[in-house]
Each structure stands twice: as structure tokens, then as C-alpha cells.
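Hi R.,

Here's the chain you asked about this morning:
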Amino acid sequence: MRAEFDDSLVTGNEMIDTQHKELIDKINKLLDSCESGRDKLVAIKTLDYLADYTDFHFSEEEKLQEEIEYPGITEHKKEHEKLRTVVKELYEMLEEEEGPSDAFVEQVNKNVIEWLYRHIKGFDRSVAEYKFMTANSERL
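And the predicted structure, written out as C-alpha cells:
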């Protein structure tokens, strides 16, 4: 399964949406690296790239939440930590196996893509809506 950015993932916040598109691109590159010869080194380097971008994105989201005094920031940070844990587990899988196995790809689909979809549609959309409401409170 490849990740796809569609209308159901639009939060309405341009910065967040742009970064989500990039994050999905990184996930797909990881999946592509798994399919093309199942080279362990390529998969590790691609996972590194995904982990780095994920950290950047989470940092940007959390900065935005602090700026707008988002009341759900603590829970949101906990959700971000869940994905960081998943990425560590993916590194462990790559180390234990000869390369990116079918089980590894299954974990990327289940624990990265599905997590990301739920996170965007719930947590991130909530942040974008809160930001919009606070910025436009005089019109509501």
C-alpha cells in the first residue's frame, strides 16, 4: 500500500498540509526502497531521511501549537512520541533481518501510514481548526 495525500487529509493550514505531503512522499520512498532489491543499506538510509523529516515536522507542529496556545498540546506531543517509537522499532527490524522483509513493509503500512492518516484526520485537523477559530473569533 502506498500512502496518498487526498482531500480527506487536508487540514486547511498550508504549512501543515505542505509538510504532510512531503512526509507522505518520504514514506513512499521508504516503501520504494523496500521493493527495489530489498537492499538493507538503502532502506536504512531512507528510514533515516524519513525520521529526520518527521522530527522536523513534529517540531514545526509543536511550535505552532505553542504559538496559538493550543489546549491539546500535551496529548499531541504524546502522539508524536508514539510514531518516534515506531520508527525505532523499524530500525530494530532492519537490524535483525537481512533487509526490509515483507513483515517490515507490513509494519510501515500498519504503524506508519495508518497512524499518520488517523493523526492528520484527528489531531492535526483539530489544531488547524483551533488556529482558524482563534484567528477569526470576531467573525464567529
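Residues 91 and 98 are 12 Å apart (CA to CA).

Let me know if you need anything else.
M.
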